[in-house]
TrEMBL record:
UniProt source species: Cupriavidus pauculus
Alphabetized PANTHER family for the sequence: CATALASE (PTHR11465:SF9)
Upper taxonomic lineage: Bacteria, Pseudomonadati, Pseudomonadota, Betaproteobacteria, Burkholderiales
Name of the protein in its database record: Catalase-related peroxidase
Function: Has an organic peroxide-dependent peroxidase activity. Decomposes hydrogen peroxide into water and oxygen; serves to protect cells from the toxic effects of hydrogen peroxide.
Keyword Metal-binding assigned: yes
Length: 370
């Protein structure tokens, strides 16, 4: 973790109420989308605490109910391409797709959060989800976003923060006192938000680095396991984040134009040590080994309204893993799996009533708006 040299503890300075208001005003909708970045709860929790139903209900309370859409990552487009393995991952994992070769990929670019018509904005959290599906072998699904750590240590913290975004019936707006109370009860939250705030955001989807955030295990042919985290590093040139534009889909339109040429990301796996933290709000030391296991290329996009669109019926459940990759003591991916399943069932029930997506089929075919 990059610590402020003027603050040896590495902890952010104590903020008063005014400073807190400014901090959360800056991250604004992005913080709300962080609450929607992962559906972090599942059936492994006791029924009297949290369940997938309660979390999905929480998304709808905070974001509104949008029939036929994903309750999380609601605004997005499909993509297809391939993963070309370097073979470097075979040292750590026996998964078949680690062997040198070219494997089909289905992907989805989206914003985190449950609002399918949210106007594109610089502060929104971007996501990229992938399904690598080798013929005759077990698939690998990934769910990644463009921040370096998740601001919540566990499921309860995530859910508590999500509820701070539920509008007060009297005012129609979230109660800021609830957010202040949450921060007071979860001091690690501000520390994680401080790490997120130091990242240099890119100009669009195509040149963004996407991180899985959770800890998984690579298991070798000999049965040895190592903790890992992975990221997608773009080969497209970095450009800094720009101001918001009036076109409500301007970031997606830019992605559509960029995809006129194949878009590429290196899949970089960080090899951890046994004592590295599993919690997703804690970063690993910078000196950990990084292994380039291959390149993901995405060369075609499609609106989710396109008949037969590749990603429409995929949940991008991060626990769908091939033999040779497994979940770790980090319970969050399993919790996400349960809530994603609940969201999918609702979408299936509502399929015939779903209105058009924000990014339409004609918009994609036209190459984005001018």
């Amino acid at each position: 973790m990059d610590q402020d040299k003027r603050n040896p503890s590495g902890l952010p300075p104590r903020l008063g109420p005014a400073a807190l208001a400014i901090r959360f005003g800056v991250i604004g909708l992005a913080t709300l989308c962080l609450a929607g970045a992962f559906a972090y709860t599942g059936g492994w929790l006791t029924p009297e605490r949290l369940s997938p139903h309660r979390v999905v209900d929480g998304f709808e309370a905070a974001n509104g109910k949008h029939i036929g859409f994903r309750r999380n990552h609601a605004k997005g487009v499909c993509a297809v391409g391939w993963f070309e393995s370097t073979g470097a991952g075979t040292q750590y994992s026996r998964a078949r797709l680690m062997a040198p070769g070219k494997y089909p990929v289905v992907g989805r670019f989206a914003f985190a959060g449950g609002m399918p018509y949210v106007p594109d904005a610089p502060g929104l959290i971007r996501s990229l989800a992938l399904q690598i599906n080798p013929t005759g072998a077990e698939e690998w699904r990934m769910a990644m976003i463009d921040i370096p750590v998740f601001p919540f240590a566990d499921v309860d913290a995530f859910y508590a923060q999500m509820l701070t975004g539920v509008p007060d019936p009297k005012t129609g707006k979230p109660d800021p006192e609830k957010m202040k109370a949450f921060v007071a009860a979860h001091p690690d939250f501000l520390k994680a938000v401080g790490i997120v705030g130091k990242r240099q955001a890119s100009s669009g989807f195509a040149n963004t680095t996407y991180n899985a955030l959770n800890t998984f295990l690579f298991v070798s042919r000999e049965g040895a396991s190592v903790p890992v985290r992975w990221s997608l590093a773009p080969e497209q040139a970095f450009a800094p984040l720009g101001p918001q534009q009036p076109d409500k889909n301007y970031l997606f339109d830019a992605l559509i134009k960029d995809a006129a040429q194949p878009l590429k990301w290196k899949v970089i796996v960080t090899i951890g040590q046994p004592d590295d933290p599993v919690r997703p709000d804690l970063p690993w030391p910078d000196d950990r080994k990084h292994v380039d296991i291959g390149t993901v290329t995405l060369d075609k996009l499609a609106s989710e309204d396109t008949p037969g669109a590749s990603c429409t019926d995929i949940t991008f459940d991060p626990t769908v893993l091939p033999a040779g990759i497994s979940t770790s003591a980090d319970a969050i991916p399993s919790a996400r799996s349960a809530a994603y399943a609940r969201s999918f069932l609702l979408r299936e029930e509502e399929r015939g009533a779903k209105p058009p997506s924000a990014v339409t089929e004609s918009e994609v075919k036209a190459g984005g708006k001018s």
